[in-house]
């Protein structure tokens, strides 16, 4: 059976272009990186790299498995973040009212770190005019955060 650690080493070798560069990035011996890749290849019964030249080259099977390995590690990170959020009893929903004139892709990019930090929280973003916020509160859609236009 392969491990998350072996997948991390596999991805790092692909990202850095060599076993030695991956070893430096992971702060390991190059032999340890080579052994992790060899053990992963044995565990999955697939050759991931062609080692005929000085620089390892992904095989077709390696190219196929790389995005899946990245997805698995992303899901593991999400799982760990969710466990942490549950343990800290973070909010599960946040409603944010934003003045229509402020809403932009740049504004959404500012909020992305919140989604990463609080993976179990559902963020509901409402675009409205400053004057409609009062109506939202009356009908029970109370914004936790209101961002008026900046003058």
Summary keywords:
151 residues, alpha/beta, Arc Repressor Mutant, subunit A, 2 domains, 3-stranded parallel β-sheet, two-stranded antiparallel sheet, 6 helices, 5 strands, 14% strand, disordered C terminus
Characterize the biggest β-sheet.
3 strands, parallel
Compute the average pLDDT: 85
Total domain modules: 2
Return Rg in Å: 23 Å
Overall structural class, as computed from helix and strand content, comes to: alpha/beta
- The counted number of beta strands is 5
Rough shape? elongated
The CATH class of the largest domain is Mainly Alpha
Low-confidence sequence ranges: 146-151
CATH topology of the largest domain: Arc Repressor Mutant, subunit A
CATH architectural name of the largest domain: Orthogonal Bundle
The CATH superfamily of the largest domain is identified as Winged helix-like DNA-binding domain superfamily/Winged helix DNA-binding domain
Note the total helix count. Answer: 6
The portion of residues assigned to helices is: 40-55%
Give the strand order of the largest sheet, numbering strands 1, 2, ... along the chain: 4-3-5
Approximately what portion of the residues adopt beta-strand conformation? 5-15%
Q: Termini, distance in Å?
A: 59 Å
| Secondary-structure element series | HHHEEHEHEHE
């Amino acid at each position: 059976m392969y491990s998350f650690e072996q997948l991390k080493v596999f991805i790092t070798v692909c990202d850095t272009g060599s076993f030695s560069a991956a070893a430096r990035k992971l702060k390991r011996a190059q032999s340890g990186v080579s052994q992790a890749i060899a053990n992963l290849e044995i565990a999955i019964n697939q050759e991931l790299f062609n080692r005929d030249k000085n620089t390892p080259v992904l095989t077709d099977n390696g190219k196929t498995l790389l995005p899946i390995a990245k997805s698995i590690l992303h899901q593991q990170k999400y799982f760990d973040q969710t466990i942490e959020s549950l343990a800290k009893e973070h909010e599960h929903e946040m409603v944010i009212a934003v003045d229509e004139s402020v809403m932009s892709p740049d504004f959404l990019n500012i909020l992305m770190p919140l989604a990463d930090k609080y993976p179990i929280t559902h963020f509901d973003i409402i675009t409205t005019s400053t004057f409609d916020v009062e109506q939202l509160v009356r009908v029970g859609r109370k914004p936790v955060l209101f961002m008026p236009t900046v003058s």
